Amino acid sequence: MNEQPMYVAFIGNPNCGKTTLFNAYTGANLKVANWPGVTVEKKEGPYAFKGQSFRLVDLPGIYSLTSYTMEEKVARQYIMGDEVSVIVDVVDASCLERNLYLALQLIEMGRPVVVALNMMDIVEERGMEIDLHRLPEVLGVPVIPVSARKKTGLDVLMHAVAHHGEAGREPDRLEHHHAKGEGHHHHDHHKDHAVVYSDDIEDKIDLLEERLLEKWPDMVNVRWHAIKILEDDEEVMRQHPIDTSDILERSYETDIINQKYDFIEEVVQECLFNKEAKSERTDRVDRVLTHTVWGIPVFLGIMALVFFFTFTVGDFLKGYFEAGLDILSGAVSGALEAIHVSPVLESLVVDGVIAGVGGILTFLPNIFILFLALAVLEDSGYMARVAYVMDGLMSRLGLSGRAFIPMLLGFGCTVPAIMASRTLENRRDRMKTILITPFMSCSARLPIYVLLSELFFGRYAMLAAYSMYVIGLAVAILVALVVHLIDRQSNSNRLLIELPEYKTPNGHTIAIYVWEKVKEYLTKAGTTIFVASLVLWAVMNFGPGGLVDAEHIGNSFGASIGHAVAPLFAPAGLGYWQIVLSLIAGIAAKEVVVSSMSILFGVSNVNSAAGMSAMAAGLGAMGFTALNAYAMMVFCLLYIPCAATIGIIRKETGSWKWTIFAIMFQLAVAYVMAALVFQIGSLLV
Amino acid sequence: MKMKDGKKGGTYLVEDIRLEEAIMRRLQMLGMIQGTQVEILNKKHSALIFKVRGTRYAIGTAVAAGIEVKEVSGDE
To answer: Are A95 and B55 within 8 A, CB to CB?
Structure first.
C-alpha cells in the first residue's frame, strides 16, 4: 500500500476524448484552477485504485510539444517536472496517424508514458482493426484500448499506470527495425528508441549529446534535448545554451517532423487495417451544416432555438423557484419576528440577503438551459463549424472565423469567452476580439432583460429580450468593422481549425460542464452578489443622520450618491437616482442590477406577481416608462460586464492601459446607444 | 498550383508550404508535409475545408494560398 498519491498527467490532442476519459475517473470531484502565471485552466482530481491513491492532472489539449503556444509550454514544463510519475497519452484511435505524432514526442521525452487508445468503439463501428500486440512493440510503451464514452478499459488502464510508474522509466522491449539500405551512422538505435532518424540527423544528435553532457554531466534524457536543439527550440536553447555553430547550419525542424511522420506511416501500415473505411456520417451532416448558402441560416436557426429554450423552458422552471422563494421569505420573516429579532436585522436578512441573493437564484433555470445548450453545441462538434460558417463575415471585419467562437461563448459568460480568444492566430486579432466579446450578451444580463421586459413589454417581452442579443451582436460587428477600417493592416485570413467528427454529446461530460457553470453562478450569488446586496442595503438604510427608515430613504447615503450622478444620465432616460445606483452596483456583477432594484424598491421576490406589481408601481410613480426601460436594457447590455471581466481583460492583455481603454470604450458605447434609443424613441412616442 | 485554387472534391498532394513560421510549423505537425495527400471537401471564397490523414480542418484562403499542391490524376 502506498500512502503518497501518484501524480498522473493526462495529455492528448484536442478532441481526442481526453476530458471525457478524465471525467470518467474523477467525476465532478475536481479542483479547477489556473496553471501558475497563465490563464490556462488546470483540472485536478483524486482517484483510488486497488489501494493506490492517484492524483490525476488534466493537461491542455495540444497537437505537439513545441513551445509555440502557452498551452504547449505549460504541458511541456509539467511533463519535465518532478511531480508527475506517469503520463497517460490519450490517443484517438479513429485518427491514429495524427495522434501518434504527439505520442512520439512524448515517448522521446523519456518519461514513463502509457498510451490510452481511446474511441475503440468507433474504430470497431467503422470496421477498422488495430493490431494491439504490434503497436506497443513498435512504440515501446504499454498501449491500453479504452472507451471513455462507454467506460470500458478504465481499470486496465489504471493498472498499467500503477505498474508502469513502479517499473520506472526503462522502456519496454522495442521490436522494430526499419533500416533502409546501407547507412554510415555507427550506432544502431533501434533497440532503444522508437523513432530513429536518418543517419546525418543521428550523427548530429550524437555530437550534440556529447556536448550537452560535457556541460551538464547529470542531464537526464540528453537525446530529447539534442533533438530540441536540432529543432531550434527557443526554450531548450535558452536553458541549455551550447555552441552549435560547427554542427548545425540551419533548423532541422522540418526534417524531424517529416521523419516522424515517415515512421508513423510505417507504424500505421503495420498496425492499422481497413484504414480507408470512411466516416460518412460526418460528411453527410457537414453537407448541410457547412453548406455555402445554408450554413448561415442554419446557424441562426440553431441559435434562435437555443434562446427560445432559454426563455421558455427556463421561465417554466423559474415558476417553481419563485414559489419556493416566496415561502422561504415569508417563513424567515415570520420566524425572525417570532423570536423578536431587532427590525434592523430582520430587514437586513429579508430585504437585503433574500431580496438580493434569492432574487438572483430564481434566474438559475434560464442560465442552466443556456449553458446546457452551449455544452451540447461544443461537445457535438458543431462549435468548430461555426468558425468556418462565419468566416466569410468575420474576414470582412478583418478577423478569422475562429474569432466567432469566443463571441459565441460570450452568450454564456464573458470571462471564459475572453480566455478562449487566446486560441486566435495573432495578437491583433486577439485584442480586437477581447474588445468586442463583452458586447455579446452574457447570461448575467439575462435577469435584467427578463425583469424589465416582463414589467414593461407584456406579450412582447420575449421579443424585447431577443432584440438585446441582436443589438449586442450588431454593435460587436460594427465596432470590429470600424476598427478594421481604421487599421487596414490585418487583412490576411489566418484561419486554421480542426473540425472534429460529429458525435452524440456525452451526457456525463455535459453534466460536469453544466454543473461547473451552475456552481460558479451559485458561488457568485453567495459571494459577490451577497456582499453587494449587503453593501447596498447598508448605503440605503444609513445616512449622515444614522439609521433611516423606509419613508425617508431619500436621506440615505445611497440616495445622495444616486442624486449626484443621476443628471448625467438624464439624456439616456436613466436620470433616476435608484436606477443610477443599481447601475453602479452592477459593475460588481450584472445580476446585481436586478438585486439592487429589488432592494431599492423593497421587493422581496421580483419574480412573483406581487413583487412585479410593487416594482412596476415604484417605477411608474417616478415616470419610468417602457422607453426608459428599453434604454436601460441597452445600457446594461453594453456597459462594463462585471468586475471579473475587467480582471480577465487585464490578465489576457497584460496591460492596464488597454484595460482602462476597454472600460471607457464600453461605457461610452453604452451611453451613446442608450441615449440614441431614448432620444429617437422620445420623438416617436 | 495553389491549394486555394483546388476544386471541391479534388484530391491533391502537398508539394511545398510557404507561410510564416508559426502557421507553417503547425500545419507540418498536423502531418501536412511534402507528398501528403489532401482532399478538399468544401470551399467558399474566404475559406475551405479539407481532410488530411483522416482529420478535417478549415483553413482561410490566405493559408491555402501558401500551400503548393499538385493534382492526383484520376487513373493513379
So the answer is: yes
Q: Which CATH entry fits the domain spanning B3-71: 1.10.340.30, 3.90.1210.10, 3.40.190.10, 2.30.30.90?
A: 2.30.30.90
Contact flag B42-A282 (C-beta cutoff 8 Å): no
pLDDT at A335: 87
CA–CA gap between residue A526 and residue A530 (Å, rounded):
5
Q: Are residues A261 and A335 in the same domain?
A: no
The predicted structure's pLDDT at residue A573: 92
Chain B residues with CB under 8 Å of A68 CB are 22, 25-26
Domain residues for the domain of A437 are 295-492+509-684
Q: How far apart are CA A332 and CA A354, in angstroms?
A: 9
Residue B48 pairs with which residues in a beta bridge? Answer: B43, B59
| A406's grid cell | 469566443
Nearest CA in chain A to B9: A283
- Do A445 and A317 lie in a common domain? yes
> Does one domain contain both A480 and A525?
yes
SS3 state at A549: coil
Task: Flag whether pLDDT at A422 surpasses 90.
Answer: no
- Span A663-671, average pLDDT: 95
Residue A376's alpha-carbon distances to A302, A382, A391, A413, A423, in angstroms, are 12, 9, 22, 16, 20
More confident of the two residues A597 and A179 = A597
Split at pLDDT 50, 70, 90, the class of A184 is: low
The CATH number that applies at residue A246 is: 1.10.287.1770
pLDDT of residue A533: 79
Domain ranges of chain B: 3-71
Residues of B in contact with A425 (CB under 8 A): 23
B61 interfacial to chain A (CB closer than 8 Å) = yes
Whose CA is closest to A221, among A167, A171, A290, A185?
A171
Residues B1-47: pLDDT tens digits?
999 999 999 999 999 999 988 888 889 999 999 899 999 999 998 89
* Distance from the A496 Cα atom to the nearest Cα atom in chain B, whole angstroms: 4
Q: What is the pTM of this model?
A: 0.82
Q: Is residue A182, in this structure, part of any structural domain at all? A: no
**Count of structural domains, chain A:** 3
Residues of B in contact with A400 (CB under 8 A): 60
- Asked if residue A40 lies in contact with residue A9, where contact means CB atoms within 8 angstroms, the answer is no
